[in-house]
Design a protein that fits this description.
Strand content: 15-25%
CATH class of one domain: Alpha Beta
Number of strands: 8
Protein name: Nucleotidyltransferase family protein
CATH architecture of one domain: 2-Layer Sandwich
InterPro entries: NT_sf
Number of helices: 10
CATH topology of one domain: Beta Polymerase, domain 2
Order of helices and strands: HHHEHEHEEEEHEEHHHH
Helix content: 40-55%
Length: 218
Amino acid sequence: MRIGVYMGNLGSLEKLGYYIQERELTSNPGLERALAALIDQLEPAGVTWLAGGSVGLWLQGVSLSAQPRDIDIYAEKAAASLIHERLKPLATDEPRWDESGIYASLLSHYSMDGYTLELVGGFEVHTSLADYKVEVEPLLEDAALTVVPGLKVMPLAHEFIFNLLRGRPDRYRPIADRMNTDPGRFMPLLKQIITRNGWTLQQQAAMSQLARLEGWFD
């Protein structure tokens, strides 16, 4: 069965199931239910958010050592406040500006069908290697893969940089492997991120030594 032919009358859960089946991803029924519930909660609001972390990597076919155990979603600060209002009955805390270690963001948490949902607004990463301001709108949202209507995932170029800066080779190496299968698709956004964050050639060279990406310096 081809998904595009029959998707119209299906609910979010069924659409997500067909997406996973067609791409031969490992099924995770509990997580799929939680994501479908999230879509149904947020889609009517028309607010922009992207699923990231292990959920986003799983949905893009990146090899993971374990199944996702929670859900991370990212938005601009103003959008995060609107999302909080939609999810308020599920909240386990109130949004607060959090600066922990290398991260800064408007952070809040929710219980979604047995999964912890972390909402991250206005995300920034600050390390000795580089500073990274995450621009969900418009930069990442424009390049994001639509999994099903109402669910987009963080582009792999972002996930590569984020995991490289936080020192997670178990993540950035398989992401690099996936990006190297089609550099023409993934590298333009990576170069936009580099330009918009003002990283020097020296910073880029230090990053590229950690994981080889085809086309980085072409």
